[in-house]
Amino acid sequence: MPFLNRPFLAYQLAWLRAHGVTDVVLACSYRVDDVKAALGDGASLGTRLRYVIETEPLGTGGGVRNASDLARGTIFVLNGDVLADVDLSAMRRFHTDHGARATIYVTPVEDPRAYGLVETASDARVTRFREKPGADEAITTNRINAGVYLLDAQLLARIPAGRPVSIEREFFPALITDGIPLYAWEGSGYWRDIGSPAAYLAAQLDLLDERVRTDLSPVGERRGGAWIATNATVSPGAIIIPPVVVGPGATLAAGSRIGPHAVLGSGVRVQSGARIERSVLWERSEIGVDAALDGCVIAAGGRVGDGAALGAGTVLESGAVVAANAKLPQLS
């Protein structure tokens, strides 16, 4: 998934690298060749990257178990859809100081029902793990499983091999039942689950606003608050309102207005009079004359006709076409 015109996983690898983790295994099952094409062996990102492939999806626990032959010592396990900048080195110190064999990074959220709730004793030891409580269940904590774990690799042998396993519903509750030291660490910093189009868009806007600490800059040459690829074509009459990212080979016609908060992928074409803000456009998208986009995600090759208006919440699949003068109102 592109994030400011980089693969999203590049941000996770940069986060790990900032805390001394450079040997990384990717547990993959979907579009593995695309992932390999985007990330390669990780050398360009300062990591050693290896791939373990699931012939069929094995779930959050089974996928980790499938990669366990490459795991030694103490390992970080990350969900692949989390953007964060918390101090993983501090998490590791906490893990060691508490004699933990497993540590879960937890974070408070306003509405925890969509996540796994983590209940703890006064010493931060986990006493109960509740995965996505129902609407009729009482909420006992707003601290949720944030999808980052520090584990003794030997524990992975407890996960059944060769079948789908939930790390949240099976593995962690079993650790509690068997008295294995499982602790919760609450770190301060940015955290967002990007597993919905709205969250995917919001996370990129946060990166544009530099609310996320990362040493991975957007693709392009920085010009004030904008990053513009060297081979992008920006007509003299085009207006750019930072923060904005303009990808390689993109073309902005005179009279177009880009930003604030816009990400244009490689080969995007924006015609005269078009206005784009708070939106992410993937590669080869085309935006017609006088079209207006606000709060949209346009996948690869999407085409928006002349005079069309796309409001907040609009998401176009790859290759989708919006007719001229069509109106896609804000979604509730």
Structural descriptors:
332 residues; alpha/beta; Spore Coat Polysaccharide Biosynthesis Protein SpsA, Chain A; 2 domains; 7-stranded mixed sheet; 6-stranded parallel sheet; 32% strand
Task: Write up this protein.
The chain has 332 residues and is of the alpha/beta class. The chain has two domains: 194 residues, Spore Coat Polysaccharide Biosynthesis Protein SpsA, Chain A (Alpha-Beta Complex), CATH 3.90.550; 108 residues, UDP N-Acetylglucosamine Acyltransferase, domain 1 (3 Solenoid). Helices cover 18% and strands 32% of the residues. It contains six helices and 31 strands. A seven-stranded mixed sheet has the order 13-14-17-20-23-26-29, covered by helices on one side. It has a six-stranded parallel sheet with strand order 15-18-21-24-27-30, with no helix packed on it. Strands 16-19-22-25-28-31 form a six-stranded parallel sheet, with no helix packed on it. Strand 8 and strand 9 form a beta hairpin. Helix 3 crosses helix 5. The longest helix has 12 residues. 40% of the residues are buried. The mean pLDDT is 94.
